[in-house]
Amino acid sequence: MKKYTYTEKKDTRSGFGAGLSELGKTTTEVVALCADLTGSLKMDAFQKDHPDRFFQIGIAEANMMGIAAGLTIGGKIPFTGTFANFSTGRVYDQIRQSIAYSGKNVKICASHAGLTLGEDGATHQILEDLGLMKMLPHMVVINPCDYNQTKAATIAIAKYYGPVYLRFGRPAVPNFTPADQNFEIGKAVMLNEGADVTIIATGHLVWKAIEAGEKLAEKGISAEIINIHTIKPLDDAAILKSLSKTKCVVTAEEHQMNGGLGDSVAQLLARNLPCPQEYVAVNDSFGESGTPDQLMTKYGLDTIDILNAVERVMKRK
Amino acid sequence: MKNTAELKSLCTQVRRDILRMVHAVSSGHPGGSLGCVEYLVALYGKVMQHDPAHFTMDGRNEDLFFLSNGHISPVFYSVLAHSGYFPVSELNTFRKLNTRLQGHPTTHDGLPGVRIASGSLGQGMSVAIGAALAKKLNHDAGIIYSLHGDGELQEGQIWEAAMYAAAHKIDNYIATVDYNGRQIDGDTDQVLPLGNLKAKFEAFGWTVLENNAGNALDHVIASFEEAKKHLGKGKPVIVLMKTEMGAGVDFMMGTHKWHGSAPNDEQLQKALSQLPVTLGDY
User: Fold this and answer.
1) Average pLDDT of B112-122?
2) CA angle, corner A215, sides to A186 and A220, nearest 5?
């Protein structure tokens, strides 16, 4: 098992803030909109440095999505910022018509996704956003795993023309990917080559997949670990190549089982290379208040859950 | 730019186009389309600075129009075609398979003249504000126009946008309400009364103008000229434009019945007999 280390834990939302701040300096077309969560989204630096290119919309997310669509007409590259819940479900029709169907170059940047939002509880813990967004034709859906990758993704999506959903979160998590990484939309990152089982993870579950891989190695199980930061378009070739070798897969994500990364992988395999699959995901349930760690444990999104899923899936080979 | 007589004959032709388009596919929205003929003919033929022969999505240094009540696509398409955005003959494809003239307007198929999809109501004012902000950032003197149904004002997003536009002094923007008092289910006063729209928009901080003759071309042009005088003064401008749903066809007026219903063969002939050919049918 390849060794991964980190020097500090950092929140992915700060990676977004840092990426946006850098874009502010390098790309004059980039503008930012926020619905009264500037501090939470770490957009303060951009706001301070570029007040003319920052739009405080107030608590009016539908209006924010429409204004963002309009700003593209005139060549701007708008980045909207609010919690994932208010970035997707609340404004689904606005995104669908004014952004996705209209083909507008809007970057929908969504923080506090999933259970790790913590104590605020289920009203804010959206676990359906990846599914909602990936169903929209031509919407790119990205869920990076740590601070460095979120920063790199933020910068990369400004160079891509078209609507993008960028999902990140609140808690500090191990920052282990290289600061100078080249973020390629739609390209899987191979973290460990293995022969017995493939673990495909996204977002906060990627580090847990690495932890699981280390424990499996101790038991003599060789796990191939893939970081899927882009859920759509999915890197079909990388997944099929891995599964043609390992013949079984565990998918891991901080999202509902219905509609998430696991479903995308299952669809790909069903059509090309049917294999046993186990899901590490929330099983048709809302979240609740608690600390992020407590919630990840209670809802079955921990390292031990990945290990158990590996055990189950390998028996089905 | 056309003279008033030319614009009037264009209005009559646009009305024929609308009726023939919806009749051909037995679907579409003739009522509101007929009511907004003078508005769109004046806007595209007289008021806006625009370049139909060289359409670009960004529309730099041009005036831009956003149709928020996208269901009146027939009048929009006819006016765009007669303005030179695409061949008038293409009106024949309205709502048919593989057409660029979808039931509701879209950018998806590359139809020149359309800059946003609309149809799901209440979104166009936000989009117009975004385009107005882009003009300001680009130091572009172009003016943004938008049209909204009165029933559409029941959507909450409109009021989010209205609050923002006034708070942020979006003063390169003229919105218009097609104030015909009717919607699918009946009179607006019965479905959900809008209350005092003038007082509402004034309370939100807009400059509110009233045009009580939205189907009189001269009044519409004068109303635009008046509205333009209020640009650049720190407030968004809205025109409450009284129109008659179904205007120009006697049996389509005075009722909400033709909001979303197409005439049959006999009704079409009866309607067309009231609107003599001027520029030639497509």
Assistant:
1) 98
2) 100
Whether residue B134 and residue A75 make contact (CB cut-off 8 A), yes or no, is yes
pLDDT confidence bin for B2, thresholds 50/70/90: confident
Of B58, B123, B134, the CB nearest to A98: B123
CB contact under 8 A, A66 and B123: yes
Torsion angle in degrees (nearest 10) through CA of A220, A221, A226, A231: -150
Calculate the CA B51 to chain-centre distance.
18
Ranges of residues in chain A whose predicted pLDDT is under 70 = none
B119 → closest Cβ in A58, A63, A97: A97
Which one from A8, A22, A61, A214 is the annotated catalytic residue?
A61
Q: Alpha-carbon distance A314 to A180, whole Å?
A: 36
Stretch B185-203: mean pLDDT: 97
Tell the CATH topology of A189-315.
Answer: Rossmann fold (3.40.50)
Q: Please state the domain extents for chain A.
A: 10-174, 189-315
Q: From the list B108, B140, B160, which residue is nearest A63 (CB)?
A: B160
pLDDT of B62-77, one tens digit each?
Answer: 999 999 999 999 999 9
Residues of A in contact with B63 (CB under 8 A): none
Q: What is the pLDDT of residue B195?
A: 98
CB contact under 8 A, B120 and A66: no
Nearest chain B CA: its distance from A68 CA (Å) = 6
Superfamily of B4-272 according to CATH: Thiamin diphosphate (ThDP)-binding fold, Pyr/PP domains (3.40.50.970)
> What is the CA angle A258-A98-B183, rounded to 5?
105
- Please tell me the distance from the alpha carbon of residue A35 to that of residue A187, in angstroms, as a whole number: 31
Measured in degrees and rounded to the nearest 5, phi and psi for residue B250 equal -55, -40
CATH class of A10-174: alpha beta
Which residue, A304, A265, A262, A313, is CA-closest to A283?
A262
Distance between CA atoms of B48 and B66, rounded to whole angstroms?
12
Query: What is the rounded CA–CA span in Å between residue A132 and residue A221?
Result: 35
Which DSSP letter does residue B88 get? G
B233-274 pLDDT per residue, tens: 999 999 999 999 999 999 999 999 999 999 999 999 999 999
What are A148-167's pLDDT values in tens digits?
Answer: 999 999 999 999 999 999 99
Of B282, B220, B275, whose CA–CA distance to B251 is shortest? B275
Q: Is the ipTM of this complex over 0.95?
A: yes
* Partners of A245 in the β-ladder: none
